[in-house]
Write a structure and sequence with these properties.
By secondary structure, the chain is mainly alpha-helical. The protein has 3 helices and no strands. The protein starts with a helix and ends with a helix.
Length: 93
């Protein structure tokens, strides 16, 4: 099964955008709940971690879009590293 890289990266970028929306939504809910329960002031760790996950997924989405622009990825060693990083993010979730 030979899938073109452009299709693979497009699907991965779309899935990453879905995760960004999900983590952003969960961070917003956690922030609103924390603010209602404890008032203003410091931010809870859960809010910060969910925002960090959303930021990491935004970074990965930008990498997917960047890789789509590159014509030949066979010479890049970063490709293997990036796949392992992506797998680690999905296993963590």
């Amino acid at each position: 099964m030979n899938i073109p890289p452009k299709i693979s990266y497009s699907v991965s970028a779309f899935i990453s955008i879905i995760f960004v929306i999900y983590f952003g939504y969960k961070a917003l809910l956690a922030y609103v709940i924390h603010k209602e329960l404890y008032g203003g002031g410091d931010v809870d760790v859960v809010v910060v971690l969910r925002c960090a996950l959303a930021a990491a997924m935004i970074f990965l989405t930008f990498l997917f879009f960047h890789f789509m622009r590159i014509k030949d990825l066979n010479f890049m060693r970063i490709k293997k590293y990036y796949r392992s990083l992506n797998i680690a993010f999905f296993i963590e979730h």
